Amino acid sequence: MASVEKISYWIPNWDINKKVITQEIQYYLGPEATVRPYTRDGEDGFLITTPGQCLTDEQINDICLKSREVWEKQAAARSKKESDKQLKRPLHKPIVVSRGSKSTDSSSRHHRRHSDERDRGEGSSRRRSDERRYDPRDRW
Known about the structure:
alpha+beta; 3 helices
């Protein structure tokens, strides 16, 4: 049985999806053809080994078109997955509870009134929850 000489050649990986070329290589070049990632002179590509002819320009264009379709499907699936993704914390729509007055004079007047009351020792009779007034009747 005569051994068949195999030829290895390199093509750049521009516009070529690894899965696509791996699936299509034997269709175009026969069952003995192989492909693997390969870097030549610092440039990434694929090393194709085959006993027959190398890929034609039409075959490479077909692989590039199929690669583009695969990438578009992957991008669409990713964007759908991201849109369906549940947030860790649900979105809350802000609801207006109150609105401040539109006039700046009234707010400054209000602020001034409270500061005047504090200066005179007046103001709210409310106490903070942590303040307690001493009352002798509160004894045990």
